[in-house]
Write a structure and sequence with these properties.
Elements lengths: L1 H11 L1 E13 L11 E13 L14 H9 L6 E6 L2 E2 L7 E4 L11 H11 L4 H14 L15 H15 L3 E4 L8 H13 L1
The structure holds adenosine-5'-triphosphate (ATP) and magnesium ion (MG).
Length: 199
């Protein structure tokens, strides 16, 4: 009885919880005034995402979507409020959270294959297993013939597909995606949409 209660308690816990979150960027000093200028990117943001939920944030350019995601990854520091993943306050980057960044963020010195293997290395998977999983996701995004190439040899849309493959192969607890399909063509986009929902 106690056990099942504890388990159902865990299931009901929110995956992501954001409370009164704010971020004010300090901008470079304005010549006309003594004090540095600031820019409020986020102000009193509150939201909750449950296990298994898929949430999209929509808004005009510059409204703070990327900023919110970066705070959740622990890469950017908030200036007020709190963010939690699995009930733990986000204070630094963690292995629970994967991200597909707006600017891809591939490692230029690694081949496509080894870019996709990266998260699996961090997880400590044996080499054979890493190779197999990475190859599977590279094939899924249609870039099997490019596995031994380097990021600079790929187009923007291809790089983006590799960033998607890398994040999916890693299979994180929480996957954050910053406009992951922005630079892929319409056909690939609808294919990847369907695959993502399936996965
Ligand atoms: N490092 C920074 N320093 C100062 N201001 C910043 C910084 N990063 C972002 N901003 C500002 O914060 C605001 C929100 O930016 P953000 O990148 O989160 O927007 P966005 O909603 O992701 O936009 P887009 O749809 O164009 O990607 C913008 O006004 C931007 O100029
Ligand atoms: Mg953005």
């Amino acid at each position: 009885m106690e056990n099942s209660d504890a388990e159902s308690g865990l299931e009901n816990m929110s995956k992501i919880s954001i409370e009164h979150l704010g971020l004010v960027y300090k901008l470079s000093k304005d010549k006309t005034s003594q004090s540095p200028k600031t820019l409020t990117a986020l102000n009193d943001v509150n939201l909750e995402v449950m296990d298994g939920e898929f949430l999209s944030i929509v808004g005009p350019s510059g409204c703070g979507k990327s900023t919110l995601l970066y705070i959740l990854t622990g890469l950017t520091k908030k200036t007020s409020g709190k963010a939690f993943i699995n009930g733990r306050e986000v204070i630094k980057p963690s292995l629970h959270c994967g991200i597909i960044m707006q600017a891809f963020a591939l490692f230029p010195w690694r081949t496509i294959q080894r870019n996709v293997e990266y998260g699996l290395e961090v997880k400590g998977l044996p080499r054979r297993e890493r190779r197999r999983i990475a190859a599977e996701y590279i094939e899924l995004v249609g870039l099997k013939d490019f596995a031994d190439r380097f990021p600079y040899e790929l187009s923007g849309g291809m790089k983006q597909r590799i960033a998607i493959a890398r994040a999916l192969a890693y299979d994180p607890d929480v996957l954050l995606m910053d406009e992951p399909f922005a630079s892929v063509d319409e056909q690939t986009r609808s294919f990847l949409h369907a695959e993502l929902l399936r996965i």
